[in-house]
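Dear Dr. L.,

I hope this message finds you well. Following up on our conversation about the binding site, I have prepared a predicted three-dimensional model of the protein together with zinc ion. For your records, I am including the exact sequence and ligand specification that went into the calculation, followed by the structure tokens. Please feel free to forward this to your student if that is useful.
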Amino acid sequence: MINYTERIALLMQDIVERTPRLSFIDLKEVLVFARFGRTEAEGAFATCHCMTIPESEPGYYYWRDRATGELTRRSEWFITKSPEVRVGLTRVKYLISFVLPRFCDQSLERSRKSALYPGAAPWLAKLDTIVHELYHIDPDESGIRRVARADGTNSPRSHGPMFYEDVAEMVTRYLASNPSPALYDFLKHDFDTLNAKEGGVVSTTFSNFPSFPQRYMQAVDMPMPDAAVKVERLKPLTQPVRYTEDDLHIRQFTDSSTRRLTRKGRYCAA
Ligand SMILES: [Zn+2]
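The resulting structure of the complex is given below.
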């Protein structure tokens, strides 16, 4: 069976070594994992999740009466925090998730990206997505790369007009640097072909699959500004706030489901 996320992590290592604009990335601090998503369904192919965004200022939710506009309820005060993910002694700063089997079936033919790769092989859409997610990693370590507007201020959107062009340029240069085809050949196959050829597709997932480490709300004890209004408690946490390598599972993905495999050997970080 092919370990898809491990293969992506190995390919990423070669990409950052050969791409000056990505060479600041320490892949020991980046963890690649898989989520499930059908090919026919709408949705992302991959996502870059930053685990180092600082906790938020305290805040609360409130509800008003529609007719009178009067405050009717508040939540208790809370802050939002990122969970801690550690592999061995290393704190993971970014998670990059790939949605399987959807990612494997991505093709330039059905994509807006095709204009950036005239005449290129359809599977290049997948290499483009891998470089795209790496490019979201911020060299200033402030979270997700900020995108400068033409006037030099920061845009709240994380994809500026040049983002896609920059990615295409990095992909093209990477391939022109003659990397070993053994590193990227697996991207040439769609999910069914790869599954048949390799006898199965497995990937790293988290123990709380289909969930994964995500921002959470933690209640903080602070006085309520208006004591007369009813205060709603936050829902108790249902997901872990700390993850280690023991929370990494190997799951087999099919076109319609996943199942956990018993782990053999230790998790190998990128
Ligand atoms: Zn993006």
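In brief: The CA atoms of residues 87 and 232 lie 36 Å apart.

With kind regards,
A. P.
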